Amino acid sequence: MTPKRKLIAGNWKMNGTLEANDALVRAVVAGMKQARCDVALCVPAPYLAQVQMLRHGSTIDLGAQDVSAQEQGAYTGEVSAKMLREFGVRYAIVGHSERRQYHGETDALVADKARTALANGVTPIVCVGETLAEREAGQTVEVVKRQLAAVIHVNGHCISEIVVAYEPVWAIGTGRTATPEQAQEVHALLRKQLGAATAQAERVHILYGGSMNAANAASLLAQPDIDGGLIGGASLKAPDFLQIIAAASA
Ligand code: 13P
């Protein structure tokens, strides 16, 4: 099998302005002409239309940071997968630790969001990851397996269509990165878990997220089961994001 292209997805989180986005996306588009990896930008919902226009003519895919588990109806504040499709959205992050932590999202809800996304042609980027307390208590394997199992349980028939992101909570926004070996160990485990549910587990992109930056990207991306990155802070700076894209193109 030829190695699959890596996927570098920026997660802007709740950052951006019309003016800043314009400069950032233009710089990324101009700088990624030689990219030999897939690139996505997961932007706040109000900016989807703007970024859809700005990325025009480039290979950048558009992503959302969340999606409703419901199809439509009386769910104030929610954004449906169908609406995302109308804006050309290819990916939606589901189950980011910030949503699990601050918005009480459960494993079951995350699994339902993945299902609704898939049913509407949006690829869910399913985030899993342990907290520092869980890692220190030796519960990393148990936690990430439980989180992924819920998604497999609900989406088993099309599980090879998802993207998984391993984001250790203690590495997010802290400048503290998992070592390539620590990350690879968990990625291999997640691949094995997917392999029990599908013959296509090799096809699934398993991204690493958590303080990935221009300096550490290459060593993380060199690991056999790290198929790309989900980038927070460094995706807001064009030079840094472009260096990660270059590392993924090597
Ligand atoms: P940072 O890259 O800022 O640590 O964020 C990672 C993340 O949460 C991406 O979803």
Describe this structure in words.
- This protein is an alpha/beta fold.
- The chain has a single domain (7-249), classed as TIM Barrel (Alpha-Beta Barrel).
- The protein contains 10 helices and 8 strands.
- The chain has helices at residues 18-31, 48-54, 81-86, 97-102, 107-119, 132-136, 140-155, 180-195, 217-221, 238-249, and strands spanning 7-11, 38-42, 61-64, 89-94, 123-128, 163-166, 206-209, 228-231.
- It has an 8-stranded parallel β-barrel with strand order 1-2-3-4-5-6-7-8, surrounded by 5 helices.
- The chain is globular.
- It binds 1,3-dihydroxyacetonephosphate.
- 1,3-dihydroxyacetonephosphate (13P) is lined by residues 11, 96, 167, 172-173, 209-212, 230-234.
- The site of 1,3-dihydroxyacetonephosphate has 14 residues, from strand 8.
Q: Which fold name fills CATH's third level, the topology?
A: TIM Barrel
Q: β content, as a range? A: 15-25%
Mean pLDDT: 97
Number of domains: 1
Note the run of SSEs as H and E: EHEHEHEHHEHHEHEHEH
Task: Report on the biggest sheet.
Answer: 8 strands, parallel, barrel
Which residue ranges are poorly predicted, with pLDDT under 50 across at least 5 consecutive positions?
none
> Cofactors and ligands present?
1,3-dihydroxyacetonephosphate
Strand order of the largest sheet: 1-2-3-4-5-6-7-8
Q: What global shape is seen?
A: globular
Please give the CATH architecture. Answer: Alpha-Beta Barrel
The H-level CATH homologous superfamily, spelled out, is Aldolase class I
User: Which class do the helix and strand fractions yield?
Assistant: alpha/beta
N-to-C CA distance: 18 Å
Q: How much helix is in the residues? A: 40-55%
Reading off the top of the CATH hierarchy, the class is best stated as Alpha Beta
Number of strands: 8
Instruction: Tell me the radius of gyration.
Output: 17 Å
Query: How many helical elements?
Result: 10
